[in-house]
Design goal:
With 258 residues, the chain is an alpha+beta fold. The chain has five helices and eight strands; from the N terminus they run H-E-E-H-E-E-H-E-H-E-E-H-E. The strands form two sheets. It has a five-stranded antiparallel beta sheet. Helix 2 packs antiparallel against helix 3. The chain is elongated.
Length: 258
């Protein structure tokens, strides 16, 4: 048999590149097809139905008798020179503190609240610059009286000893936790009663609580002491009435309804 030869032409370089590009495109398309295609139904997110709620508020109040008094008093001295103002104020405050101690106030319950020195000017000369006339030294202490039967003794004793300013006298309860708990129970009961009434009127039922917020406010009772009258009638004890305080708690409750 006579041997034959067959010649197979090779593709040109251009055709080779075209074929390679087509193959790469097919591969990329195959990889992206799952991501670009539609997602399965189970993977799609569904919107959550909002909770159905009733929002109400409630208030509770409890009246209690104070067992502690906070006094803020001191001395104000004006002298031409600083050293004189300091010396006089120091002597007066030493006597005031001694009087507070004599009234049964413990050392730990007496604290310096303010100590300041200010220049004093005379502005009476119209058209002229103010003239320095002296210095004012202020020394104030705060004291906690834990025996309320001693409040009048503490006030009168301090004023007789040299105190010439009394900023405030406030009665309060040292530990209001018990009263706050009672007021909280009242507030929650009031909120629940409102929610029950609203739910009944709307034809729904309360199935739970979504949130609760609370605000408490113990109400101390200030007693403004009239120092000038007390000094004019120093022989008579100062009438001080304790009265009662009110502890209040308010709540905001969001109930779930069904």
């Amino acid at each position: 048999m006579t041997p034959r030869s067959v010649t197979i032409p090779l593709p040109s370089t251009r055709l080779g590149l075209l074929a390679a590009g087509t193959l790469a495109g097919l591969l990329v398309g195959a990889n992206l097809a799952p991501a670009l295609g539609p997602r399965p139904a189970q993977a799609q997110e569904t919107e959550r139905e909002p909770d159905r709620t009733i929002s109400v508020s409630g208030m509770g109040r409890v009246s209690i008798t104070p067992d502690v008094a906070d006094i803020r008093l001191g001395v104000i001295v004006i002298r031409p020179k600083v050293k004189d103002a300091r010396a006089v104020a120091a002597a007066q405050m030493t006597r005031v503190v001694a009087a507070l101690r004599a009234a049964g106030i413990a050392e730990k319950d007496i604290q310096t609240a303010n100590l300041s020195l200010q220049p004093v000017y005379d502005y009476s000369q119209s058209g002229s610059p103010p003239r320095l006339t002296g210095y004012q030294l202020t020394n104030v202490v705060s004291a906690t009286v834990r025996d309320l039967d001693k409040v009048d003794d503490a006030v009168d004793g301090a004023m007789e000893a040299g105190a010439n300013t009394l900023d405030s006298l406030i009665f309060r309860v040292d530990d209001p936790a018990k009263a706050e708990a009672q007021a909280r129970d009242q507030a929650m009961a009031a909120a629940k009663a409102k929610a029950d009434a609203m739910a009944k009127a709307a034809g729904v039922s309360i199935v739970g609580v979504a949130s609760i917020a609370e605000t408490s406010s113990p109400s101390p009772m200030p007693y403004m002491y009239e120092g000038a009258k007390a000094l004019d009638a120093a022989a008579a004890p100062t009438p001080i009435l304790v009265g009662t305080n009110e502890v209040s708690v308010s709540v905001s409750v969001v109930y779930l309804i069904g």
